[in-house]
Design a protein that fits this description.
Elements: H1 8-20, E1 28-39, E2 45-50, E3 55-60, H2 62-65, E4 76-87, E5 92-105, H3 107-121, E6 139-144, H4 149-161, E7 166-171, H5 179-193, E8 198-203, H6 217-224, E9 230-234, H7 242-246, E10 249-250, H8 254-260, H9 265-303, H10 306-349, H11 352-394, H12 396-401, E11 406-409, E12 412-413, E13 425-430, E14 433-438
Parallel strand pairs: 3-5, 6-7, 6-8, 8-9, 9-10
Antiparallel strand pairs: 1-2, 1-4, 2-3, 4-5, 11-12, 11-13, 13-14
Helix pairs in contact: 4-8, 5-6, 10-11
């Protein structure tokens, strides 16, 4: 009984044999509209040929494709010649196209161009109408089928870039009858809910017919009237729909849409880290500048202190004393020189009496001079002691030692209660430091 069963390979090989040996199927001529077109990097062309009811897969290899005098694309009506055969590995049959001619633009493509032109004239595609996407959305709404790879890819991309965001999925039919109405209704519902900060309208790739709901006027109106920014992510990168033109932003793929609407958390963390470093650097610079200002003010305050002034006066007095002593020594030297000259003159004349007289006279003059000098020195010393006593009397440090103090506000010494108000901070200098206090009450005398 087992001998009655065929293997799958045997059946597929048999079908291929039948296809390849059917004369009619080896020279087929068809007309139809190109859909699901894809040009492979190898140069082979893969597409489907359709009419109003059905479609069939086609392949045109590089050797034949190089003979074309036009560029095939979706929606284009063509005439083809080729053979029908099967591909045993998958068990599917397709047309191997040997020749293809341009027969004109298909009906769907004409409808697409007509609506595109009409909406463009109405301003649906105007840049002024495009709303900017929020930089930091909290909630993202996704209008797409609740099953399939599209929604999984979008959620995966968003969570990878910024896993703190909330995603609201509006399950939507994206192909076939009723799809356009459901798409438009969910766009309106998302706006009515007013929860999402940005919307993604998404669908995977497909033929022009599969993507047609996104080329309908009802969907274009819903996108245009949306108050929430909307990203259109329909089909593959080469697919363009009316929703792409009306949307605030067109994404080449649904996965890319997840990237467009979310900030990258790691990049934001790096930016914040850089800004913190810059802020710390700026803070340290300002702190250094402030420290230098404080040091300069302390130096100026020290130079203006009474003790500094007193030391300067003492230094001045000591300078005058040194000058006075030098002057005295100079005068004494001059008088001694004069005395020596006179003595020499007297020794030449030698009258004893005159000499004795002159000696006595000179001695008297010398005594007077010495007495006058002593009196002058005593007077200068008395004047110095008096001046020093006055300086000590006026020295705030001496007064402070007796219990007195100096009060100031902002380096200004207080002379009257009118210069002080409640809440002011006062610096009080005593003999061994400063006391910082705050005014609680002010009383007049």
């Amino acid at each position: 009984m087992d001998n009655q069963y065929l293997t799958v390979t045997a059946l597929n090989n048999y079908l291929k044999y039948r296809f390849d040996n059917d004369v009619f199927l080896q020279n087929i001529m068809l007309e139809g509209q190109i859909t699901s077109f894809k040009a492979h990097s190898s140069g082979h062309l893969y597409f489907s040929l359709k009419d109003d009811y059905t479609q069939i897969s086609c392949v045109m290899f590089q050797r034949e494709a190089r003979q074309l005098n036009f560029i095939p694309k979706n929606g284009l009506k063509v005439y083809i010649r080729g053979r029908v055969s099967t591909y045993p590995a998958s068990g599917t049959y397709q047309i191997y196209v040997s020749k293809m001619k341009d027969a004109g633009v298909g009906e769907l493509f004409l409808q697409f161009e007509k609506l595109k032109k009409e909406l463009n004239q109405l301003g649906y595609f105007s840049p002024e109408h495009k709303k900017p996407l929020p930089k930091f959305p909290k909630i993202i709404g996704v209008i797409t089928s609740s099953t399939g790879a599209v929604i999984r890819d979008i959620i995966k991309t968003i969570n990878k870039r910024y896993n703190n965001l909330e995603i609201i999925v509006y399950p939507t039919k994206v192909q076939g009858e009723g799809a356009k109405e459901e798409i438009a209704a969910n766009i309106k519902k998302a706006n009515s809910d007013a929860l999402a900060d940005v919307l993604i309208l998404a669908r995977g790739g497909g033929s022009m017919e599969d993507l047609w709901p996104f080329n309908e006027r009802i969907v274009a109106d819903a996108i245009y009237n949306s108050q929430i920014p909307l990203v259109s992510a329909v089909g593959h990168e080469t697919d363009f729909t009316i929703s792409d033109y009306v949307a605030d932003l067109r994404s080449p793929t649904p996965t890319a849409a997840g990237t467009y609407v979310t900030p990258e958390k790691e990049s934001l963390v790096n930016q914040i880290s850089s800004l913190l470093k810059l802020l710390n650097s700026s803070y340290r610079k300002h702190l250094d500048d402030f420290t230098m200002q404080v040091l300069n003010l302390e130096t100026r305050l020290k130079n203006a202190a009474p003790s500094t002034k007193l030391n300067q006066q003492k230094q001045l007095v000591e300078h005058y004393l040194r000058q006075l002593k030098l002057l005295y020594q100079q005068r004494l030297y001059e008088k001694q020189s004069s005395l020596q000259l006179l003595t020499n003159e007297l020794s030449k004349n030698e009258p004893q009496k005159v000499i004795a007289y002159k000696k006595e006279y000179l001695k008297s003059i010398y005594n007077k001079l010495e007495h006058a000098f002593k009196n002058n020195m005593d007077a200068k010393k008395q004047a110095y002691l008096l001046l020093n006593t006055k300086l000590e009397t006026l020295n705030p440090l001496g007064i402070m030692a007796k219990g007195f103090s100096l009060a100031s506000i902002d380096n200004h010494y207080i002379r009257s209660v009118s210069e002080v108000k409640v809440g002011d901070k006062i610096s009080t200098e005593v003999k061994d430091g400063k006391i910082i206090s705050q005014v609680m009450e002010v009383k007049n005398a």
